User: What shape does this take?
Amino acid sequence: MIDSSTSLLQQQTHDVIRLAMGSPAHDAIPAALLRQVVGEVLERVGSAAYDYGPTEGEQSLRDALAALLNRDRSTALPDNEFLITSGGMQGLDLTCKLFVEAGDVVAVESPTYTNGLATITSYEGDLLEVPVDRDGMVVEQLAEVVARNRRPPRLIYTIPTFQNPSGTTLSLDRRMLLIDLAAQWGSVILEDDPYRLLRFEGRDVPTIQSLARGRARVVTVGTFSKVIAPGLRVGWVTGEPEIVRRMIDAKQGVDTCTNVPLQLAVAEYLCEGLLDDHLQIVRPCYRSRKYGLQEALSAHLGDMGATWTDPDGGFFLWVSLPGVDTLELFEVALRAGVAFIPGSAFSASAGFRDALRLCFASTGVDRLHEGVRRLRRAIADLCGDTRPHSPKS
Ligand SMILES: Cc1ncc(COP(=O)(O)O)c(C=O)c1O
Assistant: This one.
């Protein structure tokens, strides 16, 4: 659904306010600086920049990434506990390649990231859906769901920080409980963490991996897609040495190495301190866009019983629209000039028909308001004026 939305959106010739895709705004991509660092680094490294590189990643990027991750750690990240990947998706794929065999149970949040679900099902994992509330996955229910299922999960897939699509963050208590349960069942936790650096308010919650400290096996997937640019296709995985070694072997058979010139460019970007500067700019911008979108929702959908989440970072709001079929709404809204992703795209069982995901990060506040105004018009077109309106709870 997300990928088909990209091509559908590209075909539109009328003005469409794009609240669908989870990518940084074009105006938030540091294109001029990237052009400069790419030029500088490629000139300096010369033809070696176009050779095959080490599967675990270019040394300059490994050093720069370790320095970035070490800021959050009490001990330095050992060299054998991470590898560079071709985006976050490759980290998800390699983890499933290692840990999911046909029929293995994989616990997932519901709703969750569509392409994460696609990766798990491509390895024929059996999905076990666990609900999400304002504090992320309802881990207390995970134990009940597993008891009913009578088979513990081999893998637990979670997006604990500014979740896609709900924007929620897994609380510290639930992180600890999740680790306990994974340790008890011998499950691996797949911590998919692309939005962590995009906190614009509230207090940091430590990664599950740092909290687990060897009590449970945790693979953490990161990416530069959301903080620099998705087209770079540069990400990383951290995990225990045995897992990382097996991932490097597996990656060799997939793409040999991640694109070398772009790894060098990202390394240069980090070494020059440009990521820090960039984050200082985008975080307040995304914060004001989140509030802008929430105000627009109050103004235009507040009388319809609509509710929405309140994330402390990341890109997304999850909106519930009782009584509205958002899959049917999608085409009507596209004609009205606004795009979103229907809720059912984020569920293995096609649930959430009355919910949708909006990305606030890639659109200015005025256009966000106009987008929600168009959404309201589309709802009126779809449902007519006979639909009962209830006050916002
Ligand atoms: C939760 C989550 N995981 C992984 C990814 C994939 O990241 P990348 O584009 O670096 O492959 C995304 C991108 O939307 C995401 O939202």
User: Anything to note?
Assistant: The two ends are 30 Å apart (CA to CA). The CA atoms of residues 317 and 358 lie 5 Å apart.
